[in-house]
Amino acid sequence: MQSYLKSKDFQPDLKKDYFLKLAEEMGELAQAMRKKQIANSTVELKGSVQEEICDVLYYTTCLANLYEMNLSEWFIAKERLNDDKYGNHWSEQLLSKPTYQIIRYTDEYREDMFLCYLLAKEALGKPHLREDLLDIQSNYFECGDEFWLAISGDNRVVGMLGEHRISDHGLFLKRFFIKPEYKGCKIGSQLLQTVEEYAKKQGITELHTRFPEHYLEAEKFYSAKGFVKIGDDENQNHLIKKL
């Protein structure tokens, strides 16, 4: 959520305005709580406690972004302070890393995969669905290619990665996306490791990827994973990793 909001609403000169809006939303939350305006479903969101909580979280997250706070990291640090103060050990549970299951795509997760993809693209400012994702069976499996999903503990799609064979010894990574709020959870590393293990079993020795030059986050990730730039294709960086 932090990445998404930073791409949507990040105005460093308006710290005071964000704070005043947060205070306003806190007042509206208190009023909704007094009136017991509880929504029983998302269609009843308007004017509910749940809506006001979302607004409070929105402006709290915006302020955190202005102060360059990674909320996950700072929250754990705060829990450590609380542990020292009250003698608890809750931060140890926070530090135990959740596991994400990497599976081969199945239609059971089709709609949730669309949601994951669109949220990731929206964070990049390009929320549109690619046609190849509409039919993974035809566009990947029946072509001899593969597609994987990262599934969270609550059975939601939080990441995806496909591959397209370009030769007997090379493949291209396709549709490599992580749900914005799950970035930093090593899901990308797990997905890439899955592809590398698959590639080695298939006798593949080269992994290729392309992405726009201004995708600095992607450049940092791939460089750390051993990819090397070999050129530019249509204003996109072309990187390769030898296995």
Descriptive overview:
- There is one protein chain.
- The protein is of the alpha+beta class.
- The protein has 2 domains: 93 residues, Helix Hairpins; 142 residues, Aminopeptidase (3-Layer(aba) Sandwich).
- The protein has a 7-stranded mixed sheet, with helices on both faces.
- Helix 1 packs across helix 6 and helix 2 packs antiparallel against helix 3.
- The longest helix is centred in the first third of the chain and has 20 residues.
- It is elongated, with a radius of gyration of 21 Å.
- It starts with a helix and ends with a strand.
Q: What labels would you give this structure?
A:
single chain; 243 residues; alpha+beta; Helix Hairpins; Aminopeptidase; 9 helices; 7 strands; 45% helix; 20% strand
Summarize the structure.
With 243 residues, the chain is α+β, with helices and mostly antiparallel strands. It contains 9 helices and 7 strands.
Provide the helix percentage: 40-55%
State the shape: elongated
Strand count, sense and closure of the main sheet? 7 strands, mixed
End-to-end separation in angstroms reads 34 Å
Number of domains: 2
SS field, number of helical segments:
9
Cα-atom radius of gyration: 21 Å
What fraction of the residues are assigned to beta strands by DSSP? 15-25%
β-strand number: 7
Low-confidence stretches: none
Gross CATH architecture of the largest domain: 3-Layer(aba) Sandwich
CATH topology of the largest domain: Aminopeptidase
Return the average pLDDT rounded to an integer. Answer: 90
CATH superfamily of the largest domain: Gcn5-related N-acetyltransferase (GNAT)
The run of helices and strands is HHHHHEHHEEEHEHEE
